[in-house]
Amino acid sequence: MTTTKLPCRTLLFDLDGTLVDSAPDLWHTMNHVMGKLGLETLALDQVRNFVGNGARFLLARGIYGEHATAPDDNPDFEAAVKLFLDYYQEHMTDHSRPYAGCMEILQKLKDSGFKLAVVTNKTEKMAKTMLSNLSMDHFFAEIVGGDTLEERKPHPLPLLYTLKKLDTPPSFGVMVGDSETDCKAARSAKCGLILVSHGYNRGIAVNTLNPDATIDFFEELPPLLELTS
Questions:
Q1: Catalytic entry in 14, 16, 182, 212
Q2: For this structure, is 14 an active site residue?
Q3: What domains appear along the chain, each with residue ranges and CATH number?
Q4: Residue 209: what pLDDT?
Q5: Beta strands in 32-171 (DSSP E)
Q6: Is the whole model's pTM more than 0.90, yes or no?
């Protein structure tokens, strides 16, 4: 873990589990689908543990088990995905809220001259809707979703694409996330990495992923950064 400040021009934030505690609405949506399919509903903590890699993987884990991956060419599964997305689109911010201190720190970082972006595996449309509903969208110069490009995290392309659009070399970009997916993307992109301890990391202790730093509260983020023009 770093003992010096990370040089930074642009911060790339994951969304679910990093900026926003979205698990309650994902839980309600998952159980809506499970009920329609005649399957046993899940506990909130189970759904928290299943989050990561986007809605398709979340749904697959809920239906088939925690180690499942999303199947290909399965009409029944695709129908369940549509049911999930249609319901979630209408209910994604019924109970989801930014983590404590998040809004104030985003404003402070922006006022200090940092460029801010969101890079998520949520679809771009849903990410933009969530951020708009929560009055957070104005903080971010770019919002890149899991379907914006031909690759998604943990591939480095979404990070590199966003940094290029914001005229930032990877060495001056810092990914702020909560999971192994964010870790792999950041390391492949050769940018900095800060992990939050409050997110959806599928049972993995974030400090074991060897980030440059970990934070328990958003107030701890600005002191870790050195603005680089």
A1: 14
A2: yes
A3: 6-21+97-227 (3.40.50.1000), 23-91 (1.10.150.240)
A4: 92
A5: 97-98, 115-119, 142-144
A6: yes
